[in-house]
Every structure is written in C-alpha cells, then in structure tokens.
Amino acid sequence: MNAHLGFSTVDLAAHQSHPEPVVRLRDFTRRFGANTIIDGLDLDIAPGEFIALLGRSGSGKTTLLRTLAGLDEVRGQDVEVPDSRAVVFQDARLLPWKPVWKNVSLGLKGNNGRDRAEAALKEVGLGHRLDAWPLTLSGGEAQRVALARALVREPKLLLLDEPFAALDALTRYRMHDLVLSLWRAHKPAVLIVTHDVEEAIALADRVLVLDKGRIVAEERITAPRGERASFAGRLREKLLSHLGGDDHGEGVVPFAIAAE
User: Fold this and answer.
1) Mind spelling out the 3-state secondary structure of the chain?
2) At residue 107, what are phi and psi to the nearest 5 degrees?
3) Do residues 190 and 50 lie in contact, with contact meaning Cβ atoms separated by under 8 Å?
C-alpha cells in the first residue's frame, strides 16, 4: 500500500492475522428455493471495527444483516456472532403508545430501566425528551432514540441498516458525527449497510462490496476521519466501478467529519 494514498485494496485470497473476531462466517450460503442469495461467503469482523457494506439491490445485503442480527436461522452452518448485538433500522420502529424512555428501556432487566434510558438519551442529546411521545419526534430525533435503545444494551456488535437514508442531508451529516462519537465511547464492532458510497468512505475502517451473494471487493481505509479528502474521489470511483457505475450517493462530504 502507498502510505500517502490513505486506502488499500485487500487481497481477498490472502491470509491475514487479526484479533479474535466477534463475527466469523465461513462458506456461508443462503438459498430460497432455487435462488442462491448468499454464496459461500467468508467474513470476519474484529472487535471495535467499523465496516460499511455496499451493494446493489438484490445483492444479499439484507439477508446477511438478518443473519448477523439473529433474525434468520443458521443451523448447520459455520456462523459465529455475539449474543450481545443490536440493530438500528431505517425506520426507527418506536412503539407509539410508550414514551421515549420506555422505548429505550424496553426489554432491559432490573429496576433501573429509567435511569439507564436517561443516561443513553443524554448521550444522544435527548435527555430532555424522556417523557415525549414518539409521534412528536422529528425523523432525526427518532433515529437518535433508536441509537440510544441499541447502545443502552452495550452490544458487542451494532448493526445499522441504512439508518440515515430517510433523513435530510444536514441531519444525516450530524448523525454521522453522533454515530462516530458513540462508537468511540462504547467500542462495539459496527456494520453499516448503505447505498451511499460517500457515507461508507466517511465512516468506515473497511468497505465491502457485495454482489450476487459474494464479497467482490474490499477496501481498507487507513487515513483518519477528517483527513480523507485527498483520496475520496479516487476511492469513490473505484467502489462505484464494483457497483456497476451507478452513483447511489447523495453528496455526503466524507472529509467534513470532525477529525479524530
């Protein structure tokens, strides 16, 4: 790798030594009838790693995420995921009949649910909205509640399924900053599924491209967040070439994130 480039293409066939992964898949395959959705996929995610998963519609992204989230059975396959995991979807999926703090504390054990929910909501800037009803929240606020609900459980694996796709550009940019600050504080492994190439470059340590159920490209980003302007255009073009050349991004500026 050229040290001045800021990113490197990973040889998918090469063996690399890493810390014991929190996620490990070997030759994972998922079929529905005659259709093969995931085809012999190998994947490791290291503790605290931030990965972005890109792919066209129908490439297998949702199926892979459902597997990692434990929503689909994987009997008879070599799949290891931590018990402690959480998912944030594009739709915040809040229960409208429960106030915000009860949405965050839903399923927590013990009698300190409100205190834990309050602490988590303060982390996402919503400590003043504990007793608000979900229908009174803006889209950005609802997604922040969803993040608080996920992180209050201190997951080892945080899965983000296009969580910012429905937000306006400014709110999305602010959510990027928030997610990075929460990731640094809690240190979960993160996998974000996105169609936005710029978002992937802005957030991730490693970008994977999934096509026809296989990882066809992998780019490791070594430059700190905040110092990616010099190579963002080249990397964007390279990733788009693996995606078939269609620009799915919406102008997220990958070097505007506050420097690490």
Assistant:
1) CCCCCCEEECCCCCCCCCCCCCEEEEEEEEEECCEEEEEEEEEEECCCCEEEEEECCCCCHHHHHHHHHCCCCCCCCEEECCCCEEEECCCCCCCCCCCHHHHHHCCCCCCCHHHHHHHHHHHCCCHHHCCCCHHHCCHHHHHHHHHHHHHCCCCCEEEEECCCCCCCHHHHHHHHHHHHHHHHHHCCEEEEECCCHHHHHHHCCEEEEEECCEEEEEEEECCCCCCCHHHHHHHHHHHHHHCCCCCCCCCCCCCCCCCC
2) 90, -5
3) yes
- The CA distance from 174 to 170, in Å, is 6
Neighbours of 164 (CB within 10 A): 27
As given in the structure block, the two tokens for residue 43 are 């994947």
Torsion on CA atoms 204, 206, 209, 213, rounded to nearest 10: -110
Q: What is the pLDDT of residues 187-234, one digit of tens each?
A: 999 999 998 888 998 899 999 999 888 899 899 988 888 788 788 788
What does DSSP say about strands 206-211 and 50-55: parallel, antiparallel, or unpaired? parallel
In angstroms, rounded to a whole number, what is the distance separating the alpha carbons of residues 48 and 188? 5
Q: Please report, for residues 160, 163, 169, the alpha-carbon distance to residue 87 in angstroms, rounded to integers and kept in the order given.
A: 6, 10, 22
Q: Give the whole-angstrom CA distance, residue 228 versus residue 223.
A: 6
Residue 111 confidence (pLDDT): 84
Backbone angles phi, psi at 54, to 5 degrees: -105, 155
**Structure tokens belonging to residue 165:** 């796709």
Angle between helices 113-123 and 139-151 (to 10 degrees): 130
For tokens 């504080």, the residue is 185
Residue 95 CA to chain centroid, in angstroms? 23
